[in-house]
Write a structure and sequence with these properties.
With 163 residues, the protein is of the alpha+beta class. It has one domain (5-162): Aminopeptidase, CATH 3.40.630. It is 34% helix and 33% strand. The strands form two sheets. It has a four-stranded antiparallel sheet, covered by helices on one side. It has a three-stranded antiparallel sheet with strand order 5-7-6. The protein is globular, with a radius of gyration of 15 Å.
């Protein structure tokens, strides 16, 4: 495993550690839509779900791959608790996690859906290797307004070429 990268085990994670993570990521307002912002229970359910793989990098970046359907797909989300990392370092971490999750669940692809207005999220997804596939119009409710989500895909075969 990459130095500073740890897998979070939903079975053994201590409630106080999950609470600490929530406290640190919940201040990242842009990472949450109007339904999940402030909803610790929704976060805890996703973190504890058997269809989620969660990773913590240097105690400052939480990456969750949710909605995993073995042999098919999962959805990757980054939560930055500290912006001290370069785009390149985040791309390397994202690729490593994508590879690990693809291998663990024999996935064909991983999907990312960054809000189109979040240029940082779009840039990191692009640097990881996610290719633009389309736009979901008005699929993200943020502060009472509907925003578009980009659909970006990373196929296992393409990821192997990047690594």
């Amino acid at each position: 495993m990459m130095q500073g990268l740890e897998t979070l085990d939903p079975v053994t994670i201590k409630p106080e550690d999950a609470n600490r993570l929530w406290e640190r990521i919940s201040v990242q307002d842009i990472a949450f839509d109007d339904f999940s912002r402030g909803n610790m229970h929704m976060f805890a359910e996703k973190l504890a779900s058997p269809s989620t793989a969660a990773f913590l990098y240097k105690d400052a970046v939480l990456v969750m791959v949710e909605g995993i359907i073995p042999r098919l797909n999962g959805f990757m989300h980054f939560f930055l608790m500290d912006r001290k990392f370069s785009d390149n370092e985040l791309a390397i971490v994202g690729r490593r996690i994508a590879r690990d999750v693809i291998d663990m669940f024999d996935l064909h692809r991983i999907t990312a859906t960054p809000p189109a207005f979040n240029k940082f999220a779009v840039r990191i997804a692009t640097r990881v290797g996610f290719r633009y596939e389309g736009l979901m119009k008005g699929a993200f409710l943020y502060k009472g307004h509907y925003h578009d989500l980009e659909i970006r895909g990373l196929v296992a075969e393409d990821l192997r070429r990047l690594m």
